Amino acid sequence: MRVLLVDDHALVRNGIASLLIANNIEVVGEASDGLEALQKARQLKPDIILMDIKMPGCNGLEATRLIKAETPEIKLVMLTVSDDDEDLFEAIKCGANGYLLKNLKAEEFLALLHGVARGEAAISPILATKIIEEFARQARVDPGLARNELTARELDVLKLVTDGSSNKAIASTLNISENTVKYHLRNIMEKLHLRNRSQIVAYAMSKGLVPRVFPGK
User: Which domains does the chain possess?
Assistant: First the structure.
């Protein structure tokens, strides 16, 4: 796991870097604002970027939008003190693979980070309800419509994604290849007009397609 840290406070970056290095996670670089993050993402091609939101100049949300447009394969996780609804929902719209608060315990933060590396969504438990409620509020279709749109196999994949399973685990459970899992995920996102795993999980829960399971529960 190769990580790029983006935060305008050097002391914060140093603290996070020390925690990651102590747990055998490689920190490939650091940036202090969004534009520098974009440059470093181009140069270093990290697996994961941990991105603050409130930064001078180009903030973390705009940087996320730019980086995801250029390199969608990079997993990008917001790491912030902001639990503001607008920041949370905008981050997901920009393509963020997770949204973590800086008040997380170290072991919980590391567990969620490893989950991102496996292809899982990383959302601080306190924010899960907000996402579900927002998707429910914005819903414009019958709860049963997604069931009618998705095939039986796609619904199987949807449930396993919401359970937190990685693509490899889904492939093993359903006895299919990882490429087939990716194919089903692309179809699910196209049919439901979603962009990433975080949105898939929130949508499935808000529609009652799967039980409401919260991270860490």
Answer: 2-132 (3.40.50.2300), 139-206 (1.10.10.10)
